[in-house]
Write a structure and sequence with these properties.
Number of helices: 8
Strand content: 5-15%
Structural class: alpha+beta
Number of strands: 12
Order of helices and strands: EEEEHHHEEEEHHEEEHHHE
Largest sheet: 6 strands, antiparallel
Strand order of the largest sheet: 1-2-12-11-7-8
Helix content: 10-25%
Length: about 500
């Protein structure tokens, strides 16, 4: 039966112990693992060599309190009892083979806390922790070691051993590079070349992109073409962006130039905003913009009055959106509480004398004169709850648009619309300017006409594409909570062949 060592303090954390304790009350250290003190008092070694290994629990090293070449230059074997109450007479201790004598007045008898010191009378032996021996020391233990926080020199920087519990915190080194999930096209040369005309992944440059927009080789999602679109038609330009919050772009636009029967230019722009609560809103906006543009390009050269052509274009757009409700794709995606595909529409036609606007929903048209000393104007009225409250005199505009129901639309294109009522208007401006056609993703950040005029660059009439880019950037800088689409048309329509700088 092994003898229980009598300790006054825990060898691990120096917590005071009582007679008969088997575990430390502070850190739970197993006191039965402490080796029994030997009956003899071995000679203190000071020649730089390590003492014989202590007999204790397997896997526990008990070297000296300091490195052989460190401060103090000596080691204290484990289990050394405290010195007698009164120091013996000054007599040399039998030296070891190559070490000097140790006398009571030497540093070995210093008070507790000195590096490598022997405890003074009445003080228990401090716990001894593994240290890193100096190179060349015979029999020195290997591996990273750390002295205690209360005795011995401070631990070297980066020591992986906790002074209190002896737990190691070192980990294997992290690799500088992790293997790629997808093949690296710079080093992989044995992949088959995709057939000509196949859409190739932008990440691995080797895999084919499937119809869902993901690479079949590495699984990387491909950027969608509608996330950001720009089109410069010379006399008109438009930009559309997904914004910063939406997962897709549900806006669409169409811009084009044509000629009237007498050869004078006619410039058109159509902007549509998909209704997010409906099914397939992105398809609805795209179908509406294309149908309206095709209708205008067919009617204007035939001599149809631009205002009548705009009305007919909105009807054609509504029919295109209604047709989506009968498609199988709508039946597959439509939930039990979703509406049929729906969107809003706003458009403008500019001729040398006329400015025509048409709309259904809450997308808008603004007039910004080149001479900024004259006032700008908003040319459309929203089909929305807020506009109805203002028109009925129940609220002023500030109160109505501060309400959470302000942007609830009362008119849209779709199979479940109450009744199609296209709005059209014709203007004859007496001075040059620019027409801004936009969705609420822009005018939410420049609602009043004066605010929109401040956001429009001064050279917008000569640089419509740049102006559209600036306005989209204005919305993104303001927060980009919605899809943003804007078209810029100079008035009067420039001569055919002129374009943006």
């Amino acid at each position: 039966m092994s003898q229980m060592p009598q300790l006054s303090a825990c060898p691990s954390c120096e917590w005071p112990l009582e007679s008969g304790d088997r575990f430390c009350g502070a850190c739970g250290y197993d006191l039965s693992a402490v080796p029994v003190r030997p009956d003899d008092n071995p000679t203190i070694v000071m020649n730089g060599s390590a003492p014989p290994p202590a007999t204790g629990a397997p896997g526990m090293d008990w070297p000296g309190a300091a490195a052989p070449d460190g401060p103090g230059g000596h080691e204290l074997p484990p289990g050394t009892p405290p010195l007698p109450p009164s120091p013996p007479p000054a007599a040399p201790v039998s030296p070891t083979a190559s070490g000097p004598d140790v006398s009571p007045g030497s540093p070995a008898s210093a008070a507790p806390g000195l590096p490598g010191g022997v405890p003074a009378p009445g003080h228990p032996a401090p716990p001894v922790f593994p240290t890193v021996p100096a190179p060349g020391g015979p029999g020195a233990p290997a591996g990273p070691q750390t002295p205690p926080a209360t005795a011995g020199p401070p631990a070297p920087t980066g020591s992986p051993v906790s002074p209190a519990s002896g737990v190691r915190f070192d980990h294997p080194p992290e690799p500088e590079e992790y293997p790629l999930q997808a093949p690296d096209p710079r080093v992989v040369t044995d992949l088959p070349t995709p057939p000509e005309g196949t859409k190739v992944c932008v990440a691995c440059r080797a895999g084919r992109v499937d119809h869902d927009g993901y690479c079949e080789n590495c699984g990387h999602a491909q950027p969608r073409e509608r996330d950001h679109m720009e089109l410069d038609a010379g006399l008109v330009a438009a930009v559309s962006d997904r914004g910063l919050r939406h997962h897709r772009n549900e806006d669409a636009f169409a811009v084009a130039c044509t000629a009237l029967p007498d050869g004078r230019p006619a410039v058109l722009a159509i902007v549509c905003d998909g209704v997010s609560s409906a099914t397939r809103p992105d398809d609805a906006s795209m179908a509406a913009s294309r149908a309206a543009s095709e209708s205008l390009l067919a009617a204007l050269p035939r001599g149809t009055h631009p205002q009548q052509a705009m009305h007919d274009a909105i009807v054609a757009a509504a029919n295109a959106v209604n047709a989506l409700a009968a498609e199988p794709a709508t039946a597959r995606e439509q939930g039990p509480h979703q509406n049929a595909p729906a969107c809003t529409i706003v458009g403008s036609v500019v001729t040398p004398e006329l400015l025509i606007v048409g709309w259904v929903g809450d997308s808008r048209v603004y007039w910004v004169p080149v001479d900024r000393s004259t006032p700008p104007a908003r040319l459309t009225e929203d089909d929305s709850w807020a506009a109805q409250m203002v028109a009925a005199g129940l609220m002023n505009e500030a109160e109505a648009y501060a309400d959470e129901r302000a942007h609830a639309i009362t008119g849209w294109l779709g199979a479940d619309a109450y009744e199609l009522e296209p709005h059209t208007a014709s203007f004859k401006p007496d001075r040059p300017g620019v027409v801004v056609v936009c969705t609420d993703g822009l005018w939410n950040y420049a609602e009043a006409a004066d605010e929109m005029a401040e956001a429009v660059p001064l050279d917008a009439a000569s640089r419509p594409l740049h102006s559209a880019q600036v306005l989209v950037g204005h919305a993104l800088d303001g927060g980009g909570h919605d899809n943003v689409t804007v078209a810029v048309l100079p008035f009067p329509a420039p001569p055919m062949g002129a374009g943006s700088a």
